[in-house]
Amino acid sequence: MKPSDLPAGAAPDRANPDRDYQAIEFPYTRHPDQDAAGPARHPVVIVGAGPVGLSLAIDLAQQGQRVVLLDNDCRLSTGSRAICFAKRTLEIWDRLGIGERAVAKGVSWQVGKVHFKDQLVYRFDLLPERGHERPAFINLQQYYAEGYLAERAMELPNIDLRWRNAVSGVTQDGDGVLLSIDTPEGPYQLRADWLVACDGARSPVRNFIGQESKGRIFRDRFLIADVKMKADFPAERWFWFDPPFHPNQSVLLHMQPDGVWRIDFQLGWDADPEVEKRPENIIPRVKALLGRDAEFTLEWASVYTFACLRMDSFRHGRVLFAGDSAHGVSPFGARGANSGVQDSDNLGWKLLAVLRGQAPDALIDSYAREREYAADENIRNSTRATDFITPKSEISRLFRDATLDLARDFDFARRLVNSGRLSVPSTLHGSMLNTPERDAFKGLMVPGAPAADAPVRDAQGRTGWFLRHTGNRFQAVIFDGPQTPERLAALQGGSPVPVEALLVRAAGETGPAPDGVTVLEDVEGLLAQRYDATPGTVVLLRPDQHVCARWRAPTADELRTALARALGHELTEKVSA
């Protein structure tokens, strides 16, 4: 599906900020594959055009890989659904071309407040330090995020986006994956070298290959009510435990764009979902929070049950799972969509390396192991938050309430309060793609960590951001020093893939730029601080902007060995993340 295939009402329109993304319908278009004598073959087929599938398709297409993206529907998501997109997701979307649009439309925030009964307990700041391009979070309705991604996808000739193409069967053999697909004009089949299922929590692909997600379902229900109103509340996350307007339960309030506010009301396990979704039952709850005379309109409502689930493995032969099809968490903490986009970020470069013959098949195993580790971390945090928010015994409720009382005055108690540990990217500490360290470093930029941002100035004198110069390829970040020529020479020749050198100089330092090397000035010294860098330090970044090795003074052999390891050439056993 390309822009030229679309009627005027569905064509990409970046210039129209008021476009109604809930009204768009993408047309079904017959594809030549449906008239082929046998199943057409494609290197990568992705199922599901939600935030995860679209992010992965764009990532691959921008780097020259043709992708078929199938979706069983012709519309964007209904209702706001996922609304909290984290800093790391925005950094990934910057690389995919929609980060600026998302931030411009979204509501940026970093402060949260926790209330107990009718009193403020404490406030927290998710990004207290300066020197980052992106905010801690934005709130943005999922249909905007999907719409921006879909418009970006339709700008890329390497993406073949097929609406109303529903996968009805999946089988594997030694020759790849065979898909059966239903369309308004009848069925057809495709073959794929790799199939990536991004088709949601009820994943048909998962069912077709006989797999399931396992875990815990919590005996509680919550009501989401999106209301449109004029309010002078700040752009903050407000959470109440046992408030007077909704006693013995919890409530969450978030600002969204367009004057829409998200309110979550805890209901209890015995609540009838269909009854609670009726406007005559929602409106009194909202008025109890806002005041009897509050004026608002109800935009969307849903009742949900908490669940923390995941598949045993995210890889099954040539079928890979990402996002909600692979794992699911309760919504407090915003770990669902953010984790799914990070799945796509982890998988994209690995698929490319394998398809290009630069890496062995075992590199795809590292996707599964690393993102299973991240899913376990998210599930652990989500489960702890859910247990704190919804205590299941009188003893656990007494503990929670005592903790909240103490948190008004004592920092130690605040660390025990859990209204949802908000999403942060996983540091893949034990990944076998990491090079074990031989030098002493301080700080968070250990192998496996996502790269930290900082302001920089390029050789043309333009001030910008470090992460804007990274991604899509392996890069050696060299902090300038006496041994810089030797460091640069070590990158020449013998590497399994090309490696770009980023030479970082301290503020005010000048000198000629070596041929083929990007030179960045660390204008505030934050880059060296965050990476604990001294002159001569080298940090090796993966294409997904994760650190995979660092040294004070690496040799050429050490650089080459680290690259080979990061590409999976030394994986003789399962990656342990």
Describe the protein's architecture and organization.
With 577 residues, this protein is α+β, with helices and mostly antiparallel strands. Among the domains are: 3-8 and 19-103 and 141-214 and 313-360, 3-Layer(bba) Sandwich (FAD/NAD(P)-binding domain), CATH 3.50.50.60; 455-566, Glutaredoxin, CATH 3.40.30. Helices cover 26% and strands 27% of the residues. The chain has helices at residues 51-62, 87-96, 99-105, 142-154, 204-208, 273-276, 279-290, 336-355, 362-389, 394-407, 411-414, 484-490, 526-530, 556-566, and strands at 40-47, 67-70, 84-86, 107-109, 111-116, 119-125, 137-139, 159-162, 166-173, 176-182, 188-197, 213-228, 237-241, 250-255, 260-266, 297-311, 315-316, 319-321, 327-328, 455-458, 463-465, 474-479, 499-506, 518-522, 538-541, 547-551. The strands form four sheets. Strands 1, 2, 8, 9, 10, 11, 17 and 18 form an eight-stranded mixed sheet that branches. Strands 6-5-13-14-15-12-16-19 form an eight-stranded mixed sheet, sandwiched between helices. Strand 9 and strand 10 (176-182) form a beta hairpin. Helix 1 packs parallel to helix 8 (336-355), helix 2 crosses helix 3 (99-105) and helix 8 (336-355) runs antiparallel to helix 9 (362-389). The model is unreliable at 1-11 and 572-577 (pLDDT under 50).
Strand content is 25-35%
Write down the Rg: 25 Å
Q: How many H/I helical runs?
A: 14
Top-tier CATH class of the domain at 3-8 and 19-103 and 141-214 and 313-360: Alpha Beta
Structural class label: alpha+beta
Cα end-to-end separation: 38 Å
- List unreliable stretches of 5+ residues: 1-11, 572-577
Largest sheet: 8 strands, mixed
- The CATH superfamily of the domain at 3-8 and 19-103 and 141-214 and 313-360 is known as FAD/NAD(P)-binding domain
Give the strand tally: 26
